[in-house]
Amino acid sequence: MAAAVQANLSRAFETLILGSRRPVHPRRWARIRCSAAASPLRSYSITLLPGDGIGPEVVSVAKDVLSLVGSLQGIEFRFREVPVGGAALDSMGVPLPDETLAAAKESDAVLLGAIGGYKWDANEKHLKPETGLLQLRAGLGVFANLRPATVLPQLVDSSTLKKEVAEGVDIMVVRELTGGIYFGKPRGFGSNDRGEDIGFNTEVYSAPEIDRIARVAFEVARKRHGKLCSVDKANVLEASMLWRKRVNVLASEFPDVELSHMYVDNAAMQLIRNPKQFDTIVTNNIFGDILSDEASMLTGSIGMLPSASIGDLGPGLFEPIHGSAPDIAGQDKANPLATVLSAAMLLRYGLGEEEAAKRIEAAVINTLNRGFRTGDIYSGGMTLVGCKQMGEEVLRSVKTEEQVAALH
Ligand SMILES: NC(=O)C1=CN([C@@H]2O[C@H](COP(=O)(O)OP(=O)(O)OC[C@H]3O[C@@H](n4cnc5c(N)ncnc54)[C@H](O)[C@@H]3O)[C@@H](O)[C@H]2O)C=CC1
Ligand SMILES: CC(C)CC(=O)C(=O)O
Ligand SMILES: [Mg+2]
């Protein structure tokens, strides 16, 4: 990581990364100081993982936006593109090549598109694109996945919910990302005592795993509106019973945060009934995966939701919450804004470049204000555009905002 980053770390980044009270690893700071001395510009290495399906289309847009905003902010990005998922399976035989993980670990931040597709659906587990993504998240140690679901006034009419329900929704889902049933052992296939085929997975969490994600969530809630809802299934699952117990223990460290608990089935219903009751939600890996897709539809489309995944050490991973959307891949129909907004999160949480992050967010708003919509967020009277043109309009907005700022 480069250039005066230590001084520039935004408060949010400090809180999220250092909130666990663990210092940044000395090797990492050594790298930061070293590259800061080498260049008068702020210079960062970014690993790009376009992946599969619409991944390359949306990452290409986000890369252009990062480059332009960087050039206006005195930031140089050194991009390195490496394969992951199906693209890596096809070119290198595994879904996460060692070279890809090494490149990601060496960089200052990682921007991912999406992985997966019909072509690899029948592959064995270790040769599935999705396995590569899980390995990447575990390899980077990014245990905290922040998924903001904010209903922009410009898109209230794109939500499938009534305007009065969707308007003003602003939820942060804090999803545990490197534990739970996606990683738990034992897992596999076998047969039961009646000789029938079975498939099994294990939902398992340790107290330290729960504590560290709960701490991040309390810190996030403290910076937002001070309300944290922990979502679990503690009426049935032992892993959830421990989850609830630890979250309650942690609550004593955050007396200013109002904590509540909700069962996941009720939470799924309440998100549609009255989403404005939620501020920050903390939950396990699988519930967070599902609830954040549900929350995305409050905002108009899954094509709008970015995410930031962070850990104690190493670079953060930034990706839209959607998948590779094989049904629209290669047709220039994908909404690139979730990935563009993920690039903004990369700047804010990954690099501490708050001003640059704000410029991207302002450009997205400006583009929506000018009436441009991809198909997934289209409502009457707007200008329907494809992925590429949406990207060009965001670039135009960045330049327009620059000219307006220059006049003042
Ligand atoms: N982080 C990742 O890379 C993820 C990968 N996947 C993988 O993606 C593949 C497809 O999975 P699905 O369940 O279909 O989920 P998906 O999120 O790819 O697509 C669900 C629906 O949303 C639409 N959609 C998604 N992103 C969009 C965008 N940016 N603009 C406009 N429309 C968009 C799609 O066209 C589709 O109708 C699978 O192989 C799955 O395993 C799924 C979720 C996350
Ligand atoms: C491979 C899946 C766990 C990816 C996914 O659906 C997600 O992270 O949202
Ligand atoms: Mg998902």
From TrEMBL:
Stored SMART domains: Iso_dh (SM01329)
The note describing how and how many cofactors are bound reads:
Binds 1 Mg(2+) or Mn(2+) ion per subunit.
Task: Read off the HAMAP family from this record.
Answer: LeuB_type1
Recorded GO terms, molecular function? 3-isopropylmalate dehydrogenase activity; magnesium ion binding; NAD binding
- The superkingdom listed in its UniProt entry is Eukaryota
According to its UniProt entry, the function of this protein is described as: Catalyzes the oxidation of 3-carboxy-2-hydroxy-4-methylpentanoate (3-isopropylmalate) to 3-carboxy-4-methyl-2-oxopentanoate. The product decarboxylates to 4-methyl-2 oxopentanoate.
Q: Which organism is it from?
A: Ensete ventricosum
What name does UniProt use for this protein? 3-isopropylmalate dehydrogenase
Under InterPro entries, the record lists: IsoCit/isopropylmalate_DH_CS (IPR019818), IsoPropMal-DH-like_dom (IPR024084), Isopropylmalate_DH (IPR004429)
Q: Name one GO biological process term.
A: L-leucine biosynthetic process
